[in-house]
């Protein structure tokens, strides 16, 4: 039975209303940005690094060049010890986790594969200590000596680790400005000698100095012995 004009009009109105509704609802959806192939959606990316990632096998292949291996080792230890020296005295839990993860990932990604494998055994025996700056520095020196012992190298005195790997970094602007002032005085000119000291060396109570003879090598420079001062 053919549809009448009224029924056909009602069906067209219903169909048109459905299309308008779909278009209206879709207008509220945010546009999907195009991403290059292989890029992970941030919402799907893992937030925590699993233990398997931290303690997995070494990634780099074997490094056969002994010269490059030695240079790499020196640079790596300097980086690690300086990192420990700049670590906070009272780190937060997040900062402790960051340093611990950094050490494990540093071991896995180390460009010398066989070196990374050896260091992984040391990490298993001596886990990273990240509770404080001093703990991290002492741990770093200890594991460094473990490597030195295996390579038949000298054992480093860990009591001097702070001075040996001092990067010269000022903790504050005030320290930096103070360091610049000291450096400026020591590098350009010496402080003026006190008047009484000048009088003692070159005045009537002192002795005459033949500068021309000393510079020409005709006379030796004789230094008088002085007693101990308060400075040592």
UniProtKB/TrEMBL annotation:
<feature type="compositionally biased region" description="Basic and acidic residues">
    <location>
        <begin position="186"/>
        <end position="204"/>
    </location>
</feature>
<dbReference type="InterPro" id="IPR039799">
    <property type="entry name" value="ALR/ERV"/>
</dbReference>
<protein>
    <recommendedName>
        <fullName>Sulfhydryl oxidase</fullName>
        <ecNumber>1.8.3.2</ecNumber>
    </recommendedName>
</protein>
<keyword id="KW-1133">Transmembrane helix</keyword>
<keyword id="KW-0560">Oxidoreductase</keyword>
<keyword id="KW-1015">Disulfide bond</keyword>
<keyword id="KW-0812">Transmembrane</keyword>
<feature type="domain" description="ERV/ALR sulfhydryl oxidase">
    <location>
        <begin position="65"/>
        <end position="165"/>
    </location>
</feature>
<keyword id="KW-0472">Membrane</keyword>
<keyword id="KW-0274">FAD</keyword>
<dbReference type="GO" id="GO:0016971">
    <property type="term" value="F:flavin-dependent sulfhydryl oxidase activity"/>
</dbReference>
<dbReference type="Pfam" id="PF04777">
    <property type="entry name" value="Evr1_Alr"/>
</dbReference>
<keyword id="KW-0285">Flavoprotein</keyword>
<dbReference type="GO" id="GO:0050660">
    <property type="term" value="F:flavin adenine dinucleotide binding"/>
</dbReference>
<feature type="transmembrane region" description="Helical">
    <location>
        <begin position="6"/>
        <end position="25"/>
    </location>
</feature>
<feature type="region of interest" description="Disordered">
    <location>
        <begin position="172"/>
        <end position="204"/>
    </location>
</feature>
<dbReference type="InterPro" id="IPR036774">
    <property type="entry name" value="ERV/ALR_sulphydryl_oxid_sf"/>
</dbReference>
<dbReference type="GO" id="GO:0005739">
    <property type="term" value="C:mitochondrion"/>
</dbReference>
<dbReference type="InterPro" id="IPR017905">
    <property type="entry name" value="ERV/ALR_sulphydryl_oxidase"/>
</dbReference>
């Amino acid at each position: 039975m053919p549809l009448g004009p009224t029924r056909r009009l009602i069906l067209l109105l219903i169909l048109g209303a459905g299309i308008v509704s779909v278009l209206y609802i879709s207008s509220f959806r945010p546009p999907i940005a195009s991403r290059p192939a292989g890029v992970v959606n941030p919402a799907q990316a893992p937030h925590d690094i699993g233990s398997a990632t931290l303690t997995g096998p070494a990634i780099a292949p074997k490094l056969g060049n002994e010269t490059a291996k030695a240079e790499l080792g020196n640079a790596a230890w300097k980086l690690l010890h300086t990192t420990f020296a700049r670590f906070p005295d009272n780190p937060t839990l997040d900062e402790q986790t960051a340093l611990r993860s950094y050490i494990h990932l540093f071991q896995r990604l180390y460009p010398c594969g066989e070196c990374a494998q050896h260091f992984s055994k040391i990490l298993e025996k001596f886990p990273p200590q990240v509770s404080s700056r001093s703990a991290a520095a002492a741990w770093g020196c200890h594991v460094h000596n473990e490597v030195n012992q295996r390579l038949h190298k000298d054992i480093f005195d860990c009591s001097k680790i702070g001075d040996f790997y001092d990067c010269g970094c000022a903790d504050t602007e005030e320290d930096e400005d103070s360091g610049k002032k000291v450096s400026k005085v020591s590098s350009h000119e010496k402080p003026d000698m006190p008047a009484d000291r000048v009088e003692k060396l070159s005045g009537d109570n002192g002795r005459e100095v033949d500068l021309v003879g000393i510079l020409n090598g005709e006379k030796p420079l004789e230094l008088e012995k002085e007693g101990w001062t308060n400075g040592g």
